[in-house]
Amino acid sequence: MNLTILDSKTADGRSWYLCKANAKEYLSELKIGFYDFAIQRQIVKNQYLDKLFSTIKNKDPISIITLTSSIPLNMTENMAMLDLENVDILDGLQRTFRLWAYLTLANTYENFPTKNSYRDFAKFIKDTYPIFFETNVITTNLIKSLIESGEINSIKDILADYECQATFKNDHLRQIKMTSLV
């Protein structure tokens, strides 16, 4: 994931970096099984988090997401690369999972051969990504609503217009705060 370094601070031999990155890029580059990290609790139903995509769509800020990696950040003067294959989510799994589910839904729908039945698509999603339904993050009613409103076709654009702000500490602790582009 490409990061732009906005600011940095060094104190007592430790460094922190404030960075920004694209939310869609962050979600697209997550490693397979990112939600299985042992420290995190499992994905749960949560009324606030279930409205997270609306928060993103309205370009409202969301809470910090904290990532960790044993591999240092690959940096130049004001740019950095972060390989998400080497990252675990310490805090923000619920938010990341929900946004990733929406992006996965949009990507799958875009390539789905028949778009005339939300039921067929919902069944395909349930068979392909059972965890979406097991956790109630995605439901048939949500799929129906996204398809009938046409909003499913704008999910990728909405996420592409949302940027992540990240603070990095030199012990490889990464904090990412999602905020909207102004």
Name some characteristics of this structure:
elongated; 182 residues; 7 helices; 8 strands
Q: What does this entry show, briefly?
A:
The chain is α+β, with helices and mostly antiparallel strands. The chain has helices spanning 23-28, 52-57, 93-111, 118-128, 130-134, 140-149, 155-160; strands at residues 2-11, 14-22, 64-68, 74-75, 79-81, 88-91, 162-169, 173-180. The mean pLDDT is 82.
Structural notes for this entry:
This protein has one domain (about 1-180). The protein has seven helices and eight strands. It has helices at about 25-30, 50-55, 95-110, 120-130, 130-135, 140-150, 155-160; strands at about 1-10, 15-20, 65-70, 75, 80, 90, 160-170, 175-180. Helix 4 packs across helix 6 (about 140-150). The protein is elongated and about 60 Å long.
